[in-house]
Design brief:
Elements: E1 2-3, E2 7-10, H1 14-24, H2 28-34, H3 42-51, H4 63-77, H5 79-85, H6 100-115, E3 119-121, E4 133-137, E5 142-150, H7 157-172, E6 182-187, H8 194-197, H9 201-211, E7 221-233, E8 236-247, E9 264-265
Parallel strand pairs: 5-6, 6-7, 8-9
Antiparallel strand pairs: 1-8, 2-8, 3-4, 4-5, 7-8
């Protein structure tokens, strides 16, 4: 059981960060026009436009806005890449309420690796996938492909593993096959009682049936993520995403040591 590297920010920096994001997303009129009320980040940007010229250290910021600020922080890490992509149709996916969960999950995982010192390549942002994104361990000179599946709605053990199977099919469709490690990530907004998964016999059975199956030899690891919470500190807060990581002992291509922190080998 582990957590991603948190995003930490001071209250006074929030409007600066959001202003920079608005710029790369097309500017105030564009964001206000294209962002629907059903969009996950609509409350955050609506709050920003309402209070952008105020002193944020003197206004009452609701907890749900602080939470969304941390998600936006992962996007902010890639503001330069977003600026390069803004002339491409791929960035319009940000405004799709049916895609924003995937967009944010990719950003959160990538920002975790980027801030840990890895070189990252966000392929899907520039419509160059598969893979959805890649992480390079420069110490071992190994690039690892990541295939992300987002489970919308309340997840279960069965539905999460269904998403693992879909991830495998995506990896198998690559032409030509990639000769490097690959990781499948299944993300759900909820914490599915991860601690219990570590001892759940059904979970272990499903993992073993995959990670010890020759068909899954192209899968080097699996990550289940979800369940975010904020640890508040003076002048700001930290947002964590909880996850479980498993490495395959029969994978054709092994992962660099430490790439999946706190991973369990199967």
């Amino acid at each position: 059981m582990s957590t991603a590297l948190p995003i930490t920010m001071c209250i006074k920096d929030i409007p600066v960060m959001l202003g920079q994001l608005v710029d790369v997303l097309g500017g105030d009129p564009q964001v206000q026009k294209l962002l629907s009320k059903e969009h996950r980040l609509y409350p955050l940007f609506s709050f920003y436009f309402l209070n952008k010229n105020k002193n944020w250290e003197q206004i009452d910021i609701p907890p749900e806005i602080v939470f969304l600020c941390n998600w936006a922080g992962h996007l902010w890490v890639f503001k330069d890449a977003l600026a390069k992509a803004k002339s491409r149709t791929s960035l319009t996916r940000f405004y799709r309420q049916d895609y924003i969960d995937t967009f944010l999950a990719e950003a959160a995982i990538l920002s975790d690796y980027a801030r840990r010192g890895y070189y990252v390549r966000w392929s899907s942002l520039f419509e160059q996938d598969p893979p959805d994104f890649a992480v390079t361990d420069r110490q071992f000179n190994v690039e690892v492909d990541f295939e992300l599946k987002v489970k919308r709605g309340r997840g279960t053990i069965e539905t999460m593993f269904d998403s693992v199977s879909r991830g495998l099919q995506s990896l198998k469709r690559r032409k030509p096959p990639a000769e490097r490690p690959a990781v499948i990530i299944v993300h759900n907004p909820d914490d599915l009682e991860w601690e219990k998964w570590l001892k759940d016999k059904d979970v272990q059975k499903r993992l073993e049936s995959r990670l010890q199956n020759p068909e899954y030899s192209i899968v080097s690891g699996i990550i289940f993520s979800g369940g975010d919470y904020i640890m508040e500190r003076d002048g700001g807060g930290q947002c964590f995403t909880r996850y479980l990581a498993y490495t395959s002992l029969i994978a054709k291509y092994k992962l660099p040591e430490g790439l999946l922190t706190s991973a369990v080998g199967l």
